[in-house]
Specification:
Length: 515
């Protein structure tokens, strides 16, 4: 054995060792990435494949290194070949799995089932020493890549040749899948495609060498190492693309956030302007109501004063005129009281109230009329709630009076109470003209009234009284078929105290019910 042959073989063995070390480095990098990104299974697959490639390269180094120290040991060469084939068997399936993950192929499960099934069979063959035809008989040399390599020729069995064919086939599948991903404009797979093509070339070389079609050295270790580098570069490129996309998305979100902030500021300004407009509108409505309500009494008082100033007025006429003036002044006083009380917060003085008994007392607000009947239906003899009796009395009186006004004091009013474990519901119904949808929608709005006289504060105040008691007010009406006002009051107020004050904006019970 010449020194030149030994030196050339040492160079080849050293390159295999460097390949093993490089594959382990790649496995470490990709494995570290997988630890931080467990969802990307490609990292794990590539790391395992790189470890197997390192074992393969190390086994080849042992096999070829057996001839460096005379006398060479062919058994060592065979053992190294066994290690190499055992390491490389899982790699084609792992690499194909990674390629299928990149391309998201719909048939990947079937391909992987075949790939891993064959891998299991080949590993069993490796463990039974069925991949090589026994230990070599001696050493030989060959010229390859300008080097004279000393080696012990290991002859593959049928199983060994089947593995080489399977590995080449799976490499073609990987090239196809990476090409499919590239056609979808996933340009990050370009390094993996280059590595897979180089691997395919080295596999063809090794297959031809195993079949004794050519006399070269085995290069598949370098091909798989190149493929592993291509996978690594593809993963890095993909993550870089993801990072750039994330940066762009973040910039877009920041820009959207600024737009939202500006829109929020504009919305606040618009809301402030809307509140101001509503306030002005409310003031305008109030002014119109006051002007309307005050004009008629003032006109009557003015006419009465003019009549009193006439010297020919009799005592009886003067008394009648003074009575008219007094009535109109009281009317103005009631209007002022309603408007004053509407601007006060509601204060609830809580105590236990029998709603059924309170309703029957409230019905006495109606003037006796043979044409107007009121009936009561109470599901329970006693329906007690916690609330303010004065507030609830005036609210009920207002609703009952409104029902009588709607009937023009001719018809039927039905008052029904029902109770549950947590609430008492009162329904006050009439068989009058009802309300159309437009009137029904505005019935509880302040200053809205369908009568020629009245402030339109009646149901608005009732609504606030009910809300002050944590209850609900609901109106139901069909034009021409009557109307119903439904009050639901909880049995207990949410705040248990002797005096429960709630500021609900303008509103407090008025002195007398109006529509």
């Amino acid at each position: 054995m010449s020194p030149t042959n030994t030196a050339d073989t040492a160079i080849y063995v050293g390159s295999l060792g460097m390949t093993a070390l490089g594959s382990l480095s790649i496995a470490t990098l990709i494995g570290w990435a997988w630890v931080h990104r467990r969802d990307d299974i490609e990292y794990l697959l590539s790391a395992l494949a790189s470890i197997c490639i390192a074992v393969y390269a190390l086994g080849l180094a042992v096999s070829y290194g057996a001839g460096l120290w005379p006398p060479g040991n062919t058994q060592h060469a065979f053992n190294g070949a066994q290690i190499a084939i055992f390491g490389i068997v899982p790699v084609p399936a792992l690499m194909t799995h990674a390629a299928l993950r990149f391309s998201r192929a719909p048939y990947s499960r079937a391909v992987l089932a075949v790939a891993y099934g064959l891998t299991f069979i080949f590993l069993v063959c490796c463990s039974l020493n069925m991949m090589w035809a026994g230990a070599p008989k001696g050493f030989a040399s060959k010229q390859a890549l300008g080097l004279t390599i000393i080696f012990a020729p290991n002859v593959p069995t049928v199983w060994g040749k089947a593995f080489f064919a399977t590995a080449a086939s799976l490499t073609l599948v990987a090239i196809h899948e990476f090409g499919h991903a590239l056609r979808k404009e996933r340009h990050e797979v370009q390094p993996a495609i280059v590595g897979a093509i180089i691997l395919a070339i080295t596999q063809l070389n090794d297959i031809a060498n195993a079949l004794k079609w050519v006399s070269t050295i085995y290069l598949m270790a370098f091909g798989y190492a190149t493929f592993a580098v291509g996978i690594l570069l593809t993963v890095v490129s993909r993550d870089g693309a993801r990072s750039r996309a994330l940066v762009r998305r973040t910039e877009d979100l920041n820009a959207s956030g600024e737009q939202v902030s500006r829109a929020y500021i504009d919305l606040e300004l618009a809301q402030t302007e809307l509140v101001r407009s509503k306030r002005f509108a409310a003031v305008g409505e109030l002014a119109a109501v006051v002007a309307h309500e005050v004009r008629n009494p003032l006109a009557i008082v003015t006419n009465a004063v003019v009549s009193l100033r006439k010297s020919d007025s009799s005592v009886a006429r003067s008394e009648a005129l003074l009575s008219i003036i007094d009535e109109e002044i009281r009317r103005l006083d009631r209007l002022a009281a309603q408007l004053r009380d509407y601007g006060r917060p509601i204060s609830v003085e809580a105590q236990t109230i029998d709603v059924a008994a309170l309703l029957e007392r409230c019905a006495t607000v109606l003037a006796p009329s043979p044409s107007l009947t009121v009936t009561f239906e109470h599901d329970e003899p006693s329906a007690e709630v916690e609330g303010d009796p004065d507030l609830l009395r005036q609210a009920f009186e207002n609703i009952i009076q409104n029902a009588a006004n709607a009937l023009d004091h001719e018809g039927h009013i039905k008052i029904h109470t029902s109770a549950s474990a947590t609430a008492v519901t009162t329904t006050i119904s009439d068989d009058g003209p009802g309300m159309n949808p437009e009137v029904l929608a505005r019935a509880t709005a302040p200053f809205f009234s369908t009568y020629a006289t009245g402030t339109g504060l009646g149901l608005a105040v009732v609504q606030r009284v009910v809300e002050a008691h944590d209850g609900q007010l609901r109106l139901e009406a069909v034009e021409g078929k009557g109307a119903s006002v439904i009050l639901t009051l909880p049995r207990e107020l949410s705040s248990r105290s002797v005096s429960i004050a709630k500021t609900l904006g303008p509103g407090q019970p008025f002195a007398s019910p109006t529509a």
